[in-house]
Amino acid sequence: MRFCLPYSGRCREQPPTAAPALAAQGVVVRYPGGARAALDGLDWVVPPGARVALVGPNGAGKSTLLKAIAGLLPIAAGSLRVFGAPVGAFRHRVAYLAQRGELDWNFPISVRRLVLTGRYPHLGWLRWPTRADWRLADEALARLHLLDLAERQIGELSGGQQQRALLARALAQEADLLLLDEPLNAVDAATREVVSAVLRDLQRQGKTVIVATHDLDRLQADFDDALFLMDGQVVARGVGAVGERVHRAWLDNHRAAVAV
């Protein structure tokens, strides 16, 4: 009988090479005590190497979907597979970047060590980071223009720098699927340009990137496809005018309702 520990790297099976990065069929997600489903009947397929936007207002279900893909929320019904396997089978291949406000930035850890935690899915129990792990963390910091801030406590960073540190952590993991929750929300222009350039590089490397965003202006320039969510359901798809028209109509109706 073969025995292995989680994340040890010794007993991993290789995923099917032709499998989509993500395949969702009839996915339903409910929060405990919730009156309605946070996601209701989602069908979606994302091919490997795609850069896809999740678009919708707050509460539409974008963060819920990303957390379900990352294995942080269970699905109540339907099927959700990542690289052809159940969620959680290849955790080292999936990197999740939460919204900046979900982290405790007062935690006493340096920027460099925060980024190093992206290597933990590759380490296994009772194993310490190697020189190669530290090198990958430093390369990610350099890529996000943060190497000179590596020994700062994470709370000393600006909002844009914190966002870049989180993305550096995801890069250090060397994942094949990156789930980014509002990576460009409330950041300065310099951070926006750096992050956008990194996302373009990731696609050239064949990585799959799913980005939750409110920004409609650069959908066609920055993404291959888009999924528009409202109230937990898909209302439009694509980066063309149809999806944007549906989303803008919802926003106009929402603003009118709030103004009454």
From TrEMBL:
Listed name of the protein: ABC transporter ATP-binding protein
Record bears the keyword ATP-binding: yes
Species this chain originates from: Candidatus Thermofonsia Clade 3 bacterium
Top-rank taxon, per record: Bacteria
PANTHER family: IRON TRANSPORT SYSTEM ATP-BINDING PROTEIN HI_0361-RELATED, METAL TRANSPORT SYSTEM ATP-BINDING PROTEIN TM_0124-RELATED
A Pfam family hit: ABC_tran
Record's keyword annotation contains rRNA-binding: no
Residue ranges of every copy of the ABC transporter domain listed in the record: 22-256
InterPro entries from the UniProt entry: AAA+_ATPase (IPR003593), ABC_transporter-like_ATP-bd (IPR003439), ABC_transporter-like_CS (IPR017871), Metal_Ion_Import_ABC (IPR050153), P-loop_NTPase (IPR027417)
Keywords, alphabetical: ATP-binding, Nucleotide-binding, Transport
Record-stated family: Belongs to the ABC transporter superfamily.
One MF term in the entry's GO annotations: ATP hydrolysis activity
